[in-house]
Amino acid sequence: MAGFLSEEKLLAAARRATKVPLGLSVARTILLSVSGSVAFCYGIYALWVPGYFSQPVALLLPILAPLLISGPLMYVKHSLFLVMARKEADWRREVEQRRQAEAEARHLALTDHLTETANRRQLMLLGGQAEKHARRTGVDLSVAVIDLDRFKAINDTHGHAVGDEALKTVARRIKDSLREADVLARYGGEEFVVLFDGADHTYAAAVAERLRAAVAAAPVVVGDTLIPVTASIGVASQAGPDVSLSSVLLRADAAMYRAKDQGRNRVVIDQPDVQGSGFGQGDKAAEPLRGQAF
Description:
Blueprint: E1 3-4, H1 7-18, E2 30-34, E3 37-41, H2 61-110, H3 120-137, E4 141-148, H4 151-158, H5 160-176, E5 183-188, E6 191-195, H6 201-216, E7 220-222, E8 225-227, E9 231-238, H7 245-261, E10 266-271, E11 274-280, E12 287-288
Parallel strand pairs: 9-10
Antiparallel strand pairs: 1-2, 2-3, 4-6, 4-9, 5-6, 7-8, 10-11, 11-12
């Protein structure tokens, strides 16, 4: 676009517009270019018409000005549009990259890196929401505390790398036995917690027994090593306006230790003001608990 408009083109445009056989001497108009884009017209000069007018006139100014100005302006407008489109695309890409980075940071902050389950922090956040929901609606707040039996012996005998593989395998088995809405979290070491979504103690107890069976269903295979794994599980529930996540977790944890005291590889249920019951080891009959319910 930058350069000169020829005299011949100006004369042709003038003749078509005026239909007068003019003999014109036209001063060239310079189009300046800034950074590759036409910026403005430098000037359009008065025209001299020998033999027709006796003085300089600007006869062609109304005709030529739109031709000389509108073209560059359209070019500038198109260039600005392209620049703005590129800027917007860059901005959208930057926003998406920032969003992905923030999502990854949240995932790392709330996820146990070994088992890819929720970590303790996420459990407490979601548990706090479940506590508020239970108080508001009257539904039960139910949890299960799961502790792998004799896990220290696995680490001592086979090493911590094998122990880590056992934890990952157990976590997968538990997750596969839960509803999508239920939350599985690694609470610490070889201990996991399940936060049930709106489930009462009857449902939670039935699922806990299913989890116990899934954990013990087959040995954990690490290379050529077969490692039998079992779990002791405590279940607790609470409903009403005074429901407390910390209280339910404490009671479920106490029930889990009673399961260990009764021989491990079993589920013990603990409810407020109700004698607990324990069952486990496949088809073994349920056993009453003598421990006081919290």
